Amino acid sequence: MIELLNVTKIYNRGRHNEFSAVRGITLELIAGECVIIKGPSGSGKSSLLSLIGCMHRPTSGRIRLHGAEAARVVGSANPAEPVEVTSLPERYLTEIRRQLFGFIFQQFNLVRGITALENVMLPAYPLGVPRSVIRKNALELFDSLGIAHRATARIEHLSGGEQQRVAIARALITRPTALIADEPTAHLDSNLSREFLAIVEKLKLAGTTLIIASHDPLVYDSPLADKVVEVRDGLLLSPGSSR
């Protein structure tokens, strides 16, 4: 599904504070798998996720997306040909992020002052789907995640576990083919972390590709993982092997 070829990411290039966050990583991520990217804080996990999810362009190297969905988003006439992400105009990258990927951020990034339901509906508005349909889909997600009774509560009135479920629902509202999560258990206790793993296991069984960055042993030692990739100092220490 996603292929990285000798990818690097350098911040503040040419300045006194130049920093290489990702250094020559080659990696293949297969559709339907759960891939865990492990490593300590500052190892380059978040930067690598941002490249995989087309949020940032690599400084060098190539990123390719395979499959009919990626071809459809960019209007390719040949779905068998991989989509070269690196050279795409920004408008296509926006559509790829919007339609193919769902994101769960470490800090959740939920909007305070509005309801949980409104937070979940926000990413779907640019797709042009009627509001009534978006609301119906959002409520179905709330129900499947066991928080239907909190749909009308404001974000600041939710517990940490409830906020995470809202973040998961928001990531899924566009029905992406891949879910990207950055340190999703960093602010959760062990019980809530296990609940998160149970939720994403159901998503995997439904065919969603999972790409999770974590330094939590509960996550990278979980039987949920098909492949564990270790990153340190921006380098790939182990390419991972299917379990």
Cross-sheet strand order for the largest sheet: 6-7-8-3-9-10
The profile of the biggest β sheet is: 6 strands, mixed
As residue ranges, the low-confidence spans are: none
CATH superfamily of one domain: P-loop containing nucleotide triphosphate hydrolases
Class from helix and strand fractions: alpha/beta
How many separate helices? 8
Total strands: 10
Helix content: 25-40%
Report the span from N to C terminus: 18 Å
CATH class of one domain: Alpha Beta
Return Rg in Å. 18 Å
Shape: globular
- Give the topology string: H per helix, E per strand: EEEHEHEHEHHHEHEHEE
Strand content: 15-25%
- Name of the CATH architecture of one domain: 3-Layer(aba) Sandwich
Using the coordinates shown, work out and report the CATH topology of one domain: Rossmann fold
Average pLDDT rating:
90
In short:
The protein has eight helices and ten strands.
Explain the overall architecture.
The chain is an alpha/beta fold and 243 residues long. It has a domain at 2-108 and 177-238: Rossmann fold. The chain is 33% helix and 24% strand. The chain contains eight helices and ten strands. Helix 7 (190-205) links the parallel strand 7 (178-182) and strand 8. The protein is globular. The relative contact order is 0.20.
SSE diagram, text form:
Blueprint: E1 2-11, E2 19-29, E3 34-38, H1 45-52, E4 60-65, H2 68-74, E5 83-84, H3 90-100, E6 101-104, H4 116-121, H5 131-144, H6 160-172, E7 178-182, H7 190-205, E8 209-214, H8 217-220, E9 227-232, E10 235-238
Helix pairs in contact: 2-3
